[in-house]
Structures are given as structure tokens and as C-alpha cells.
Amino acid sequence: MLKVKVAILGSGNIGTDLLLKLLRSPLLEPAIVAGVDETSAGLRLARDKGVRTSARGIIDILAAEEIAIVFDASGARAHLSHAPLLEKAGKVAIDLTPAAVGPYVIPCINLQEHLDKPNVNLITCGAQATVPMVWAVSQTAKVRYVEIISTISSRSAGLGTRQNIDEFTQTTARALELLGGAEHGKAIIILNPAEPPITMSNTIFALVEEADAAAIRASVQSMVGKIQSYVPGYRLKHPPEVDGDKVTIQIQVEGAGDYLPRYAGNLDIMTSAAVAAGEAFARRPILQEGATR
Predict the structure, then answer these.
(1) What is the pTM of this model?
(2) Catalytic residue among 28, 125, 148, 269
(3) Domain range 125-263, CATH class
(4) Is 108 a catalytic residue?
């Protein structure tokens, strides 16, 4: 397999952490990191790593014919304008914002179904952490209602996260239904100002029909293993609790500590999912044809 050239659009926390992960990828070569502030820490780090930078946003990415995949780590509103431009330029867009232009994608559930799409949406950190658990439960019992609570350190919630809270709750809830298999879903995010900062935690409450406790626990544990293949810090706090028709699952996500602190699992799970998605696209013959050694 040859390396496919990629670009990162957005030089904030997520874009910068993603850069460090991509620099280790055997299939992806970060060729440009673009932002809007020449003095940003993300662009400085990219330059230090020998990666070309631009402070002109999407402009230089669109002009770079060698770029096959663009990771958009800007913002939901910005991606709405970026998406048609990237598609017209013939570049695959992997969207790390809650814009939901392309199909919802979670690597361990449905990534392979959408490798022919020009744009895929990684939904939200809460969705990446909780939807697979709901999907696992739905394989063994009908899920009538699910409510998830994602609690993250206030320190790990940057400007983009704070600006997109409405999109977070709406998009995550929809993903719980479309991908998770729940009839009705609700999502809540909590920014916890505690010091020292807390590690990202997620609680899933589900109402199900004909719950088989052993089958639910086995299905959940199997899914945890799949997620850990690309998010090593993902773990169950304890086995799922099944009480009649009520199922409770608690998940903790610790980051890899590449650019961000380990407590920022909410950001790490997004960048880890993005790398998994990018590498799957890079394996496609059509992208390998334009790749470099």
C-alpha cells in the first residue's frame, strides 16, 4: 500500500492532535494543514514537523491537486460551505464536525458501507462513544428509548465544541436512532469544570424489550474490543447493568496524549475515528492509483 496525500482543514485542538496521529499512519501523508490564523499553535507545530501550512482556510487545499482526502476539523457551519467545494474538487471529505452533510459513519459499525461516498460525517464525540453501545444492545433486544449523557472536562471543550452544542445534541440523538437502532434517542452533554480535569465519561440508559442480560453483556463486550482496535483508551467502567427492561452502560474514554491531555478523550475519540476512516478510504484502488511512495 502507498501513502495517500491528505489535508487537515482547521488548526485547533482537534486538527493538531489529528496531525500527530496522521504522521504515524502507514497509509496517509499529511501534506497541508490549513487554518485562518498564521500564528496559531497548530500551524506552528505543523511547520515544525515539516508540513506545509496555509492561513487562507480552504483556498490552498482546493488548489492542491495531489490532495485526495480532506479532514475538516473547522466547525459545523463552516463545513456546510466547505462540503460542496470539496466535492466539486474531487476530494473525499471526512467531516469531524456535527454538520451532518454526508452519511453518519462510525468505523466499527458502518464505515465499509460508505467508502464510495464523497463526504462522510463522524457525527460527534458522544456519538462515537455511545452509539456503538446502543447498536450492541439492539442486536439482542429491541431498544425503545435511549438517553446518553456525555460528560467532558470544561478544559477539553474548545471554541468549536462550545459553538456546536446545539448541533451536538441534535446530531447525536439522531445517530442513536439511525445507527444505534433505538426507536427514540436523547443526548445530553455536560461540561464539567472540576479540577483536576475529569476524563471523558459516558452513561447510556436504555429501555428495551425482552432483555437477555447475558446476551447484552456479551454483545457489548464484543463491541468494546472492536472500538479499542482504533481507540485504545476506550473502556467499560464495569459490566452493563440489566434490571428488568432497563440497561445501564458506563464508558470512559482516555486520550492517547498525542497533543492533548489524556483526559480529553472526547477529542481523541474523534481524531482516532478520523484516522480509521481515512485509512479505509486510502486502501481503495482508486485512491491508491494516485498515491506516492
Answers:
(1) 0.94
(2) 125
(3) alpha beta
(4) no
